[in-house]
Fold:
Amino acid sequence: MGFKSDIEIAQEATPQDIREIGKKLGLTEDDLELYGKYKAKVDYNLMKTKPGSGKKAKLILTTAINPTPAGEGKTTTTVGVGDALARLGKNVVVALREPSLGPVFGVKGGAAGGGYAQVVPMEDINLHFTGDFHAIGAANNLLAAMIDNHIYQGNELDIDPRRIIWRRCVDMNDRQLRNIVDGLGGKAQGYPREDGFDITVASEVMAAFCLASSLDDLKERFSKILVAYTRSGEPVTAGQLKAQGAMTALLKDALKPNLVQTLEGTPCFIHGGPFANIAHGCNSVIATKMAMHFGDYVVTEAGFGADLGAEKFLDIKCRLAGLEPDAVIIVATIKALKYNGGVPKAEVSKENLEALEKGLPNLLKHVENITKVFGLPAVVALNRFYHDTDAEIELVTRKCKELGVNVKLSEVWGKGGAGGEELAKEVIRLCEEGKKDFHYAYDLNLPLKEKIIQIATKIYGADGVDFSAAAEAEINNLENLGYGGIPVCMAKTQYSLTDDEKKLGRPTGFRITIRQVTLSAGAGFLVAITGSIMKMPGLPKVPAAEKIDVDSNGKISGLF
Structure:
């Protein structure tokens, strides 16, 4: 039997009609807004009118070590554990983010799980899906257009064109658009000014969308968005421009979560998709709560490693939404740990206990963060490859056991839910024992700088934080404007615990540098930007787009 790619496995599958998936949640055809045979939107207001499972759902968060080119498999594990729980007789719902077109055509080539643990229809999910991201981009750019039009039409609010902080967005990796000059061509074409684009998944509209609890809440969040300052230094909001109503109207349908299924027919809500290195990195609050309404077990994920995705899931999403996970899965691979130990990617398949021991502290730091900083029970999911040796598996198991955490092998890529049953049983045990002492990494009442320092020292292991003069001035400005009591969203490289992507493993003796801070008042958090992180990625030397194609029958290839 030859190797099959993820897309080939997905295309060979026979999904169930989405109406059958809806029935598993107690939903009728009238409750579903059908987008073809295999995907549908579900109105979140049904949580008020439809009976749920009748039980308080157990929430399971899947996170990982810092990502490496050797691969970890976080989404694959999330999907596989969901299927495994279903095989064990649990009423389970999976909740995931929607993939951004940027990574699909850039580095990853797809983000719907992998092998026999993925969600379908894989091509739709990875491409336009139900149009949510286009709607979010339109809402963002409507606000941008209204700002410039306000200035063009007389500038009643006295906006300083040099202090417009709202940027346009597009859901594509396009470095050419990071910094632009627009409004050229004479008086009739607008006011010339410096401008720029962020990728849609880094937009504050995306963040507010994913944290909103209803249309009214979303509209209120939009009204608070800080877009510019006046010539006298006063803040200007989207509400003052009367933009919030139209922006929300554009997202009326997008705010309804999307229902799809895994290859094994487990229901899955996929909704929203903020990046975890430059935004808060988890699916919408509405989708998570809907999954918890209809399911007894909900498996969700947060982007990248636990230093970014899990920290923001817990300190931002859980805090704002009143959620508490019952267990955490930390995904790792032996080859990724050897890469952290200094082994080149081409050699990570060979047994190397010395390198593995050197790279293991990266995993152990993430375990400590979850169990000691946040007080949550955890299991390490070791995504198994055929070349992993018994000695390597024993070493990882022993080191994690010293921290009181079990290691379970995961083989869901090749076996689907059957390859995740031991992991699922451990998750059930952790949930049923209920041994959690959940607390946040920092207190909201701390000054903004202190919150950043708490994250950097507790979660990353930094010795301290250095603030640029511009960042320090903006923090002081925002605290004076009354924004001191909000959580912090760190924008940092995903590849390292530090702000230097080349420092692998578990570095010590380093400091974090905050070069810029921006306020996301609508989302309700401060974004602290470290190192060289950018809110608009670029394409790599060989983008995944070069391998993606479609034949005369409309069959897509090249989505990994």
